[in-house]
Design goal:
Structural class: alpha+beta
Largest sheet: 5 strands, antiparallel
Shape: globular
Number of helices: 3
Radius of gyration: 14 Å
Number of strands: 8
Strand content: 25-35%
Helix content: 10-25%
Strand order of the largest sheet: 2-1-8-7-6
């Protein structure tokens, strides 16, 4: 399929414990994956930023530690996530030009990464990821 960081389709992450999220923004971290969920713009970054620990592997679906990342299905594969993503798309239309540029989002995520990573060692030396 593709590299996790070049796919433009909406992505879902599911953890072994059953927790699942839509990832609307994502970056690699030395020891895992940082991501933001829908409506992150309405939260404090400390509450909006999520961390999935572990090496990133695959070409779709992808594995990140005990989590699996897949393309969010449009054909009822997960109605709850699909509905949440549709609401987010509507919010993005409302935000229009006020939605931050990608480089600003990445900088924000990197700045707050250490506060949420499992080891506290995730810092702006990003880009190392296993495949």
């Amino acid at each position: 399929m593709a590299d996790l960081f070049t796919v433009t389709a909406p992505l879902a992450i599911r953890f072994a414990n059953g927790r699942k999220h839509i990832m609307v923004e994502r970056i690699a971290c030395q020891d895992g994956l940082l991501y933001l969920t829908p409506f992150w713009t309405e939260l404090k970054i400390e509450d909006a930023l999520h961390f999935a620990p572990g090496p990133i592997k695959g070409t779709g679906p992808w594995k990140v530690g005990d989590a699996v990342v897949t393309v969010l299905g449009c054909h009822g594969t997960d109605a709850e996530l699909a509905s949440a993503f549709a609401c987010w798309q509507g919010r993005l239309m409302e935000l229009a030009d006020s939605y931050p540029p990608r480089q600003d989002i990445e900088r924000l995520m990197k700045t707050h990464a250490a506060s949420i990573s499992a080891t506290g060692e995730c810092h702006p030396a990003f880009g190392k990821r296993g495949h």
